């Protein structure tokens, strides 16, 4: 479903080029649960952003369901972001002046979904994440875990095929984090392709497989239950 | 496709979500538009006031003034012109066919007294023709009696305020008053006329011209009013009067003006004044526009993250722009309407306080103010948004601005 071929991403920072990703080639099948790990600066968020069509590679090709994303025009990209991909961010990115329900309705508003259907689908999505009692609350009235659950509801309300999560539990306590991870697992079981960027082994452990990035390259690929083997390696990298 | 009402609601929610910012922008536009309305209303009011005053002169009027501008440099002041006499007035009446009515005028300030009550008023000496020429209305009694011009009987017509102040509720007609010390009988009282051509016709005493010239001890008239038969006769009458009097005086020592020339000069001047005032107001409106731009710039840079999020959620660039455009249009049009309302209210208050000044904003100013406020709001609201929507979502989400 997702085919990355020789993906590279270089940033200009001042007058120095920064090679965030170098020659990444990887395939992810539908329904997989993949974790991307690596020390900070390894390029994991950058890779996720490219897969999520939020960023463009400097070179290489990205085929999503067979089509080359790189040649898509802005309007078509918008469509992909709207219908095929859902994104959950570390810092939630909810709109503070809207209620939980209105935040979840947001993608549907601009997709032209009629009001009654929007309300109903938003209510259903919030119920699925256990927040039926909080639909009228504003983000500043919700805990971190609740906010991330609203973000999760928003990310899935358009029924995408792929859900991308960038450090989804990074800003949460372990209890709330567990709740989120359980929900993600559940959705994956229901057929949603799940790609999670994390530095937390407890998160990565739940994945089917783990891709380890170091300095913009894929260093290793292991199964989720082989997390122990790479922990030492990651610890070393962090100390350097 | 997302519907217009949805974009509208999203934009409206954005505005209410940042009340201080929205309020300040609104205030800027409101004040700018109100300023345009009020200032142009004042200018237009001044213009209409003057035009009105001239219109009340009555149409088809010529005014003969002793003294010629070329020799004396100003109207009737300085130099030694020949007297403008009652005979001159009669000659005009007899010999100028285009003249329909002729009214000689002499004018001074003097005291009118009834028993112990006294008033200092303008005392106007003239003939019965004056009433028609100036379209004066009588409230009770009559105007000056028809008689030989040279005769000058001791009668007087009082203005409505003067009559009220001297007589209270007593009927003035038939009573004896003293004008400048001379005993005169009140034969009529004018209806309320107001101020016309700088003269207050409510505080006035009108007596026959011959009486006045004796009373003031003068030999020359102040003015001669000539009413032509029709507007089309005006220029002919002017030429004929001028040549007749020049011949009689053996020099051209009089000036004949039509109310038209003066009127159109004033109209031009005050028209220019209104434009100038409108320009000042337009500047204040531009400042408001810059205020909107400032606020929208801040708004966009603060909401770059939100724009990035919207793009990540699959909202198209055009849709995002439409939302920002709607926000800007909402602020400008609501501000514009509020400004119109505020301006209109202020103008009404002014008219209440100064009823003599018919202040009213001209249509072109109102339309221009609204158009500018909406145009400025949209332009300056849109430009910053365009930049933000071009960013890659990742950059925007990080709060960076490219």
Description:
The model of chain A has no long low-confidence stretch (mean pLDDT 89). Chain A contains 8 helices and 10 strands. The longest helix of chain A is centred in the C-terminal third of the chain and has 16 residues, at 174-189. With 240 residues, chain A is an alpha/beta fold. Helix content of chain A is 37%, strand content 27%. In chain A, helix 4 packs across helix 5 (144-156). Chain B is an alpha+beta fold and 402 residues long. Chain B has 2 domains: 4-54 and 264-397, no CATH class; 82-252, no CATH class. Chain B has 13 helices and 12 strands. In chain B, strand 2 and strand 3 (117-126) form a beta hairpin. In chain B, helix 2 packs across helix 11. The mean pLDDT of chain B is 83. The interface between A and B is medium-sized, with 29 and 26 residues.
List the helices and strands and how they pair.
The complex is a heterodimer of chains A (240) and B (402).
Chain A: E1 2-13, E2 16-28, E3 33-37, H1 44-51, E4 59-64, E5 67-68, H2 74-83, E6 85-88, H3 100-110, H4 115-128, H5 144-156, E7 162-166, H6 174-189, E8 193-197, H7 201-204, E9 209-214, E10 217-223, H8 227-239
Parallel strand pairs in A: 3-8, 3-9, 6-7, 7-8
Antiparallel strand pairs in A: 1-2, 1-4, 4-5, 9-10
Helix pairs in contact in A: 3-4, 3-5, 4-5, 5-6
Chain B: H1 4-17, H2 19-55, E1 61-66, H3 69-72, H4 86-95, E2 99-114, E3 117-126, H5 129-134, E4 138-141, E5 155-158, H6 160-167, E6 176-179, E7 182-190, E8 195-196, E9 199-200, E10 204-208, H7 209-216, E11 223-228, H8 234-249, E12 254-258, H9 259-302, H10 304-312, H11 317-353, H12 363-389, H13 393-397
Parallel strand pairs in B: 3-10, 5-7
Antiparallel strand pairs in B: 1-11, 1-12, 2-3, 2-6, 2-11, 4-7, 5-10, 6-7, 8-9
Helix pairs in contact in B: 1-11, 2-9, 2-11, 2-12, 4-8, 9-12, 11-12
């Amino acid at each position: 479903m997702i085919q990355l071929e020789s993906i590279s991403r270089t940033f200009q920072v001042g007058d120095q080029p920064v090679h965030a990703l170098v020659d990444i080639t990887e395939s992810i099948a539908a329904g997989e649960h993949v974790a991307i790990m690596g020390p900070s600066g390894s390029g994991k968020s950058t890779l996720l952003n490219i897969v999520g069509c939020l960023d463009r590679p400097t070179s290489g090709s990205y085929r999503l369901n067979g089509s080359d994303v790189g040649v898509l025009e802005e309007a078509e990209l918008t469509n992909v972001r709207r219908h095929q991909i859902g994104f959950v961010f570390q810092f939630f990115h909810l709109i503070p002046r809207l209620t939980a329900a209105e935040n979840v309705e947001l993608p549907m508003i601009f997709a032209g979904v009629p009001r009654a259907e929007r309300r109903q689908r938003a209510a259903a999505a919030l119920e699925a994440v256990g927040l039926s009692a909080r639909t009228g609350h504003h983000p500043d009235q919700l805990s971190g875990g609740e906010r991330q659950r609203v973000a999760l509801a928003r990310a899935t309300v358009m029924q995408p095929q792929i859900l991308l999560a960038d450090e989804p539990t990074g800003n949460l306590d372990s209890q709330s984090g567990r709740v989120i991870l359980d929900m993600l697992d559940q959705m994956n079981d229901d057929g949603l392709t799940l790609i999670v960027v994390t530095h937390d082994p407890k998160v990565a452990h739940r994945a089917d497989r783990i891709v380890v990035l170091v300095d913009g390259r894929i260093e290793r690929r292991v199964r989720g239950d082989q997390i122990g083997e790479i922990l030492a390696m990651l610890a070393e990298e962090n100390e350097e | 496709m997302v519907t217009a009402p949805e974009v509208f609601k999203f934009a409206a929610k954005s505005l209410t979500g940042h009340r201080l910012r929205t309020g300040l922008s609104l205030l800027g536009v409101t004040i700018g538009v109100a300023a345009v309305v009020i200032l142009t209303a004042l200018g237009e009011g001044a213009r209409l006031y003057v035009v009105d005053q001239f219109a009340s002169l009555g149409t088809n009027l010529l005014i003969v003034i002793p003294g010629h501008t070329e020799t004396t440099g100003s109207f009737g002041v300085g130099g030694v012109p020949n007297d403008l006499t009652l005979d001159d007035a009669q000659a005009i009446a007899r010999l100028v066919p285009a003249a329909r009515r002729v009214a000689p005028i002499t004018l001074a300030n003097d005291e009118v007294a009834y028993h112990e009550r006294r008033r200092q008023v303008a005392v106007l000496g003239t003939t019965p023709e004056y009433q028609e020429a100036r379209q004066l209305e009588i409230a009770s009694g009559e105007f000056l009696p028809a008689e030989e011009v040279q005769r000058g009987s001791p009668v007087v017509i009082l203005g409505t305020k003067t009559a009220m102040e001297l007589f209270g509720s007593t009927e003035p007609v038939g009573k004896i008053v003293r004008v400048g010390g001379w005993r005169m009988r009140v034969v009529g009282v004018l209806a309320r006329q107001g101020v016309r051509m700088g003269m207050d016709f409510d505080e006035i005493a009108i007596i026959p011209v011959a009486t006045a010239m004796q009373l003031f001890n003068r030999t020359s008239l102040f003015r001669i009013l000539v009413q032509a038969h029709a507007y089309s006769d005006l220029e002919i009458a002017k030429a004929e009067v001028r040549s007749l009097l020049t011949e009689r005086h053996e020099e051209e020592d009089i000036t004949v003006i039509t109310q038209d020339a003066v009127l159109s000069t004033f109209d031009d001047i005050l028209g220019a004044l209104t434009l100038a005032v409108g320009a000042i107001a337009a500047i204040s409106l531009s400042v408001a526009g810059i205020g909107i731009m400032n606020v929208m710039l801040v708004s966009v840079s603060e909401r770059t993250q939100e724009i990035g999020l919207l793009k990540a959620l699959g909202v198209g660039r055009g849709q995002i722009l439409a939302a920002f455009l709607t926000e800007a249009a909402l602020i400008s049009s609501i501000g514009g309407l509020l400004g119109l309302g505020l301006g209109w209210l202020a103008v009404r208050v002014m008219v209440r306080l100064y009823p003599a000044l018919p202040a009213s904003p001209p249509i072109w100013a109102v339309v221009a103010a609204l158009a500018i406020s909406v145009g400025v709001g949209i332009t300056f609201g849109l430009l910053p948004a365009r930049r933000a929507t071009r960013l890659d979502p990742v950059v925007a989400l990080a709060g960076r601005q490219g």
